[in-house]
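Box 3.1 A note on notation
Throughout this textbook, protein chains are presented in two layers. The first layer is the amino acid sequence; the second is a C-alpha cell string describing backbone geometry. Keep the layers aligned when reading.
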Amino acid sequence: MSNPFHVDEFKNNSHTEWLGREFIYLKEIESTNSYLKKLPADQLSHGTVLLTDNQTSGRGQYEKRWISDPYKNLTFTVALKPEINSSLTLLTLACAAAVSDVLQRYCREPIRIKWPNDIFVAGKKMGGILTESVFMGSRIERVLIGIGININQTEIQLDSYNSCSLADLSQSKFTREGLLNECLKEIEIMYDHWLQLDPAIIKSIHSRLIGYGEWVKLQVYDELLPYTYKCIGVNIKGELLMLNEQLDVDKFSYEQVRIVPIKSTLQKV
C-alpha cells in the first residue's frame, strides 16, 4: 500500500539554504502550477515549494495531460522570484539537468534531456518540466517550475507518452522524501549558477541533451523541416544553436522546436 508524503521526514532531512524552506503539502489538487499562479503576491515567497500526492489535472507541453497515480511519484512546483527576465528557457534546462543528475545516481541507463523540458531514459519519458511566468507589467513577478517525475509507479498510463519510472529501471522502491530533498538541493545550486549566468550550466546541459553534437532533423510544431542540422547545443540565453547545411548557425528560442535524431542507414560492408 502506498503511503502519503511524510512532510516531517522531508523537513528534518532538508539540506537547502532557502529552496523549499517554505513548503506546502496538499493531499489532492488539480495542478500545483495553477494553485501557485493564483496565490496573491504577498502570500508567496521566493523558494516556496508545493507538492501534492494526487494531481488530478496535471499538464505538460501542448496541453497534454500528465497522469500520475496517487502516492507513488513526485509532482511539485518550485516558485521563484528572480530579478532578471531573460534566459528562462535556460533555467528550465538547468532544472532538468539538476533533476537528471539526481536520477542518474539510481539508474544505470544514461538520463537524457529532450529539448526543451523532458527527462528521458532508454527512449522513454521519466519526467517533465512545465515553466510558467506571471508578469507585473514588463517585470516577472514569479516563475513557476512544475516538475513531474515517475518514481514508484510501475503501471504507466500517461496520455500520448511512452514512459517509464525509476522503479521500472532499478527494480527497487524509493523514498520520495529523500529524492525530493536531493532534487531541491541540486536545483538550488543550479539556480544560483543561472543567476550568475555561469557557463558551467551549459556544460551540464550539453552532457545530457539528446542530439548534441549530431546531425539531426528539426520538427517545428507538427512540421518536419526538410533540412538537416548539427546540434551544437545551447547558449547562455537558452537558445538552441543549430549548424545548418550552409554551415551557418541558426538560433531557435521557442519551445515548439523538437530535435529528431537521424538513425544511420550506413551498413558495414
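The radius of gyration is 19 Å. The first helix runs from residue 7 to 12.
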